[in-house]
Amino acid sequence: MSFTNESEKQRYYIDKCKEIIQNKEINLGRKMTACVVTFGCQMNFKDSEKLMGILCEIGYEASEDEHADLVLYNTCTVRENANLKIYGRLGYLSKIKEKNPDMIIGLCGCMMQESHVVVKIRKSYRFVDIIFGTHNVFLLAELLYNRLISGHKVEDIWDGTTEIVEALPSVRKYSFKSGVNIMYGCNNFCSYCIVPYVRGRERSRNPEDIIEEIRQLVSDGVVEVMLLGQNVNSYGKTLEHPLTFAQLLEKIEKIEGLERIRFMTSHPKDLSDELIEVMAKSKKICRQMHLPLQSGSSRLLKVMNRHYTKEQYLSLVEKLRKAIPDIGLTTDIIVGFPGETEEDFLETIDVVKKAGYDSAFTFIYSKRSGTPAAIMPNQVPEDVVKNRFDRLLNVVNKISKEKTILLEGSIQKVLVEEENRKIDGYVSGRLSNNSVVHFKAPLEYIGKIVNVCLKEAKGFYYMGEMVE
Ligand code: 5AD
Ligand code: SF4
After folding, report:
1. What is the pTM of this model?
2. Mean pLDDT of the region 421-425
3. pLDDT at res. 27
4. Mind listing the pLDDT tens digit for each residue in 257-293?
5. Whose CA is nearest to atom 6 of ligand 1?
6. Which residue, by CA, sits nearest to atom 2 of ligand 2?
7. If you average pLDDT over residues 194-199, what whole number do you get?
8. β pairing state of 33-38 and 61-62
9. Fewer CB within a 10 Å sphere, N or C end of the chain?
10. How far does residue 362's CA lie from ligand 2's centre (Å)?
11. What is the CB < 6 Å shell around ligand 2?
């Protein structure tokens, strides 16, 4: 067979798989089901929607239950815990497969890009049928076809790629909001981080493809998009006709029917004045910025290869707050990076207090083999890290609480996202600054933007009341 492009080739394999699945269904007298489980970040979540899109085209019925005919784990490896979780869950899956030997188990995502992982799975988890990585997600139908035809294990891990395959199916968990990849990979090589090794070099999608995808989503009922990239502020640098992230945002802003634009993640070193200006005057870009700090110590930031100092970070925060006073600021912080002293840690606490984060994701440093930090001397003892982590969390929580109280009593625009699982008759939604509010409303409001009075700040969220 010859194909003019990759997506045409994959369509061919989708059709081939479809025939096989249809036959199996006739023999079994029931639908075949597939379950994709996502671990990790928004990027993986988005990849899983693409994977499920392909599986649904093939004819599988989407299921959330791991007692399915096909189970695919889309893995994460950013911290060691993520890997341990997968090994644990695989043990559980093997028990299910014992009862249904025809079940197909697949593994993909970041963890599969590490050769020691693949070796271990080959040796100790022989019941896994399909393994692929982050660069060839679009190959799922072809790999599945090979597995179905041969009955043998299929393994295909790429070291990297320059390819971006467009126009393949995808499903969406939410009908009214969607992630949109604007770039893949990362070139920053922060010394603790495994992402550049498992997600490869930075590649930006063409603006035309991004705009077309968003237009399509909007015509399908989407009102909010989350633009995704490891470092969105360096978007466009590698394009044939370079474009800045701020310029891309301006183009997206013009899409009629689109109400809200979010993005993540921003690297402080590349956050431009142009972006701040565009955000400040925008009607659609949400008042939210996720700006990972990692550490407040300029000395450690240098060893982390972050390319900014404590002072530069704080002046950026000041600039943002001046231009966009109602901005919700969130961050990522690592505690216990090799060589972190009490003084370094206190610098982090100082930045947390000065920046006034609405919320912060705090992580204990996890050694990732192959990264420069893994072989740095002075790894911090576990008890010291734990103690610092608890102290940091206390400060972060106290500040988040103070921040949420500031909006108590105000009326805010809220996108209603889902039924509240705890309180009957209630729904949950998000403000522009990404805070969550729970309030009473009929389910028909899901996907709509409504005015809500924030009656009571509860620390991380609000209890509210819808106003007409
Ligand atoms: N250990 C702990 N946290 C890490 N992160 C990335 N690598 C590591 C690591 N080795 C955190 C960073 C990043 C977030 C997604 O995960 O804070 O911003
Ligand atoms: Fe990892 Fe740094 Fe790239 Fe973020 S910017 S993915 S922390 S290397």
Report:
1. 0.94
2. 95
3. 94
4. 999 999 999 999 999 999 999 999 999 999 999 999 9
5. 193
6. 190
7. 94
8. parallel
9. C
10. 15
11. 186, 188-190, 193, 195-196, 230-231, 267
